[in-house]
């Protein structure tokens, strides 16, 4: 309702900076090189960040290695309770977190609220899942006279490397999962969004996560490389580009010693297939939301729309009409649909892509944007799926028409691209969508709806192939990958084995 939204907006607008972010090692801020953090909305200074260099990142790893054993020995119930207290603290800090999501990441109020809620959901969900998984060893069947149990243990120090497009939800979700599984964490937020990360980290500490178990290193690739190269590293959780995941994988492979897990959630060339039975108005709604919401800066966003040629003309006209109505501007204005893109580099990449499409593709929509970091929604028509070779991270939709007998070929082309994140299907023929869903490896398939905004616990999120390693964030299997599994087998019939003095340790 309007009044509530207006009240919320007023509360968020009342928050004032400046804010500061700094490396936090063992609960203490560390000094170093400092720079200004500017808002993508208007370039206004929001505060400062002290960035960690390689040496400081290495010190954070040392500190985490030191803090690991106490945290690993903390009962799972206590770890879960810390995350739940953190969820409450995130709720209480609503106005400031929303303010930072808007000012630092350029989000609309809708998007900021959705992300803030998602962060809270991650904290509560992993606490609940963790209670089930980590509370006590599980008894397993075995031969008579033998007791078998299986227990999950933290691995050690996890590096958590998170992106700017969900600087609160993914940042906090990675940390919560790694902590719940009994790991110590060194978190490196994206260089574009250190302020909201710093705020979240302080809330986590305030909720009882020990200073020794969670450390913050704002910084760039140099700090990231120091984390990945550090001898204490036990695992990496990463969300970002496919290229960076590959570089991390390579660096992990070069290390001496243990083989370490990488949990990566990366990019996609996400497609939606629309056949002639789809409802045009619903398609238009769902395409506009999937392609243009958050200015297309979601890894789940729709990039490639495949429309059956019989209905393509009308469908494109409806879409163009709907997209033309989108408002671009300051995301703190409630009437705004699309805020800015994250930085000058992102804008330059998008502008270059738009220029290339202007030459190579048929242009259906090319709006103009206000000055600054704004990119207007664009709709281009290309000849085939293969014409789009890379993930384009912004409000740019590509359309391909396919003939009624061309569905198999389209499926084959999507598979050949190698990404497997989100997939949308609009069809009222069940046989069609079951066939498409079965033929493609995508992690999140959405039928007759939009394809963004996966809900924690309901639509666990993550892809396959070039899109990530799995398991899926916000799903029941995610925490296990952060842990090691160990069995204990005891011969109960051997002398001394059956006297009942034996207690199995968790
Ligand atoms: C990302 O954009 O990095 O479903 C992943 C969604 C979000 C995507 C998060 N969970 O839209």
From TrEMBL:
<comment type="similarity">
    <text>In the C-terminal section; belongs to the aldehyde dehydrogenase family.</text>
</comment>
<comment type="function">
    <text>Oxidizes proline to glutamate for use as a carbon and nitrogen source.</text>
</comment>
<comment type="similarity">
    <text>In the N-terminal section; belongs to the proline dehydrogenase family.</text>
</comment>
<feature type="domain" description="Aldehyde dehydrogenase">
    <location>
        <begin position="33"/>
        <end position="485"/>
    </location>
</feature>
<feature type="active site">
    <location>
        <position position="265"/>
    </location>
</feature>
<feature type="active site">
    <location>
        <position position="299"/>
    </location>
</feature>
<protein>
    <recommendedName>
        <fullName>Bifunctional protein PutA</fullName>
    </recommendedName>
</protein>
């Amino acid at each position: 309702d309007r009044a509530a939204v207006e009240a919320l907006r007023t509360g968020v607008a009342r928050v004032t900076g400046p804010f500061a972010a700094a490396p936090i090692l063992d609960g203490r801020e560390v000094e170093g090189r400092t720079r200004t953090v500017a808002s993508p909305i208007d370039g206004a200074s929001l505060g400062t960040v002290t960035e960690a260099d390689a040496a400081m990142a290495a010190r954070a790893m040392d500190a985490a290695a030191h803090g690991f054993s106490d945290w690993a020995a903390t009962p799972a119930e206590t770890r879960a309770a810390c995350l739940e207290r953190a969820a409450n603290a995130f709720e209480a800090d609503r106005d400031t977190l929303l303010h930072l999501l808007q000012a630092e990441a350029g989000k609309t109020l809708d998007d900021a609220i959705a992300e803030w809620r998602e962060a809270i959901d991650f904290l509560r969900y992993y606490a609940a899942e963790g209670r089930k998984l980590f509370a006590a060893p599980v008894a397993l069947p075995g031969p008579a006279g033998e007791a078998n149990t299986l227990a999950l243990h933290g691995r050690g120090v996890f590096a958590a490397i998170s992106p700017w497009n969900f600087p609160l939800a993914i940042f906090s979700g990675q940390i919560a999962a790694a902590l719940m599984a009994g790991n110590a964490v060194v978190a490196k937020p994206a260089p574009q969004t250190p302020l909201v990360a710093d705020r979240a980290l302080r809330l986590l500490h305030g909720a009882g996560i020990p200073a020794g178990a969670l450390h913050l290193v704002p910084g760039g690739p140099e700090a990231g490389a120091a984390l990945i190269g550090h001898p204490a590293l036990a695992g990496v959780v990463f969300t970002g580009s496919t290229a960076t995941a590959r570089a991390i994988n390579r660096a992990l492979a070069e290390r001496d010693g243990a083989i370490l897990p990488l949990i990566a959630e990366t990019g996609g060339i996400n497609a939606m297939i629309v056949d002639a039975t789809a409802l045009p108005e619903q398609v238009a709604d769902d395409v506009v939301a999937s392609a243009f919401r958050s200015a297309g800066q979601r890894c789940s966003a729709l990039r490639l729309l495949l429309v059956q040629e019989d209905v393509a003309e009308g469908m494109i006209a409806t879409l163009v009409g709907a997209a033309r109505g989108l408002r671009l501007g300051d995301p703190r204005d409630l009437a705004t649909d699309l805020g800015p893109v994250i930085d000058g580099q992102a804008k330059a990449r998008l502008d270059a892509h738009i220029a290339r499409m202007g030459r190579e593709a048929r242009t259906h929509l090319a709006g103009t944007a206000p000055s600054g970091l704004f990119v207007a929604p664009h709709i281009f028509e290309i000849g085939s799926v293969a014409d789009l070779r890379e993930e384009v991270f912004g409000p740019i939709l590509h359309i391909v028409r396919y003939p009624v007998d061309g569905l198999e070929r389209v499926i084959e082309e999507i598979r050949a691209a190698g990404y497997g994140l989100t997939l949308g299907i609009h069809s009222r023929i069940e046989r069609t969508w079951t066939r498409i869903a079965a033929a493609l490896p995508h992690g999140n398939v959405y039928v007759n709806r939009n394809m963004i905004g996966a809900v924690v616990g309901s639509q666990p999120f993550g892809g396959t192939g070039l899109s990530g390693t799995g398991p899926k964030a916000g799903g029941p299997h995610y925490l296990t990958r952060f842990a090691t599994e160990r069995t204990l087998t005891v011969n109960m019939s051997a002398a001394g084995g059956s006297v009942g003095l034996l207690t199995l340790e968790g």
